[in-house]
Amino acid sequence: MHTSTRKWGNQLTNLKINKALVVSLLLSILTILLVTEKSASVAQAQTNNDINLIESKATGIDPKKILFQITLDTSSSIQEIELNYVVESPETNVGGTQIIDAQGKSGYQVFSTELSTNDSSRYIPIGVTITYHWIIKSDTGALLTTEQQTYVFLDGRFDWKKKQSDNIVVFYYGDNQRGTTGIGATKDALESVSDLLQVKVPYKVTVVIWDTERNGEAAQRSRGSTFDAAVSTLGTRVATDLVHIYETRGDYADTTRHEIAHIVTHVAGDGSIGKIPSWLDEGTAVYAQKNTTGRKFALEQAVRQDNLFRPKTEGVGAPNTSETVDAFYGQSHAMVVFMINTWGEQKFSELFSVIKAGSKPDGAFQTVYGIDLDNFYNQYRIYEGLAPIEFQKIEIKSPPKTAATQVPYTIATGTKITSDTKANKENSSMGVSDTSTSEETAANSNSTRALVVGLITVVLALTLGFVSYRLVKR
To answer: CA–CA distance from 438 to each of 75, 135, 442 (Å)?
Structure first.
């Protein structure tokens, strides 16, 4: 019995020791997990709290500039803020970068930078869509990249309204009839000119309407003091998919039809190499109008004076007075009417597609109509009651450039920087897409944490083991 009791006592002692060891091991593992989890949470929280984005916004002050602002609340010093923006276009997006030297500021700060939109080096027209985001760098190596935001650039002097129908967007202010008229005229021109040229505009079209040319003048890109002083600009296609209407006191529906027609002619006739000449572009745009009386009067005077321009050399001397501009539009329209009436709409649309494929206008006329431009011009002169002209052979090295549309997107560098400190913090927030630290800082931080965790784990494991052993001995 004694022997049996002693054996059973040894078994109990061993069981206690085994249990103690298991408990010690489990507690050690749990300690490691808890410490590791706590370390990861703190690292994430430190990264999030290091740079806190309060607000980011863009504001169109007027047609000349956009103010970008970002409000931050930071525990570390901010070294640099980078604004990255892209002017969206259906064909080619163009962007730029603005750098703000944050000068090591911390706490609640408002930083801003102005983007000039209409000067000698850059033209970003009212109505474009701009996407942008910020990259903020702190002195600790923390890096925050904000979510991409979208901003429609509008003239900040007016309270804009918006009408939309299918793939058409119209911005206007004041009388709601402007929006209705803009939608109707745009639809009309898109349908009629697309049918004529047998193409479809594959993207959304935007129209921006001011009430008077005086109010819209600041949104226009200057074409020279002589032209600006002599010619009243009622509307312009300022981008691939964007039209400006500056004057609504007259028949601005026809102005809208005219400018929308330029969007369609661009799709039909402008390729990477081939470009339609401006007389064909403007003539087709006038063809889209309902009323062409003013152009007709100017043309009749030019015919009486035998002062017509030669299509093959059009663009050598651009019209820069109201009389010569009206005569240019009138003759361009009359030649388009003559072509359609003589050879039909099918041949007319084919001319556009041949030019777009890369042919020069003279070669395209040979391909489609079997005559060159001078032969065509003489046929038109006879149609107007004028004698044909014997031309000397000339070689046009490049097709005349289309003057109807100005290239809007030329991006230069340059930044105006302001920074304001706000004492009372406002409760607002905005999402952030990515928060991270630099690789070097992260590596050093992780190594330190690993060493601390390892030491704590060893100490706890030894302590628990010793306590368990003492308990068993008792």
So the answer is: 17, 13, 6
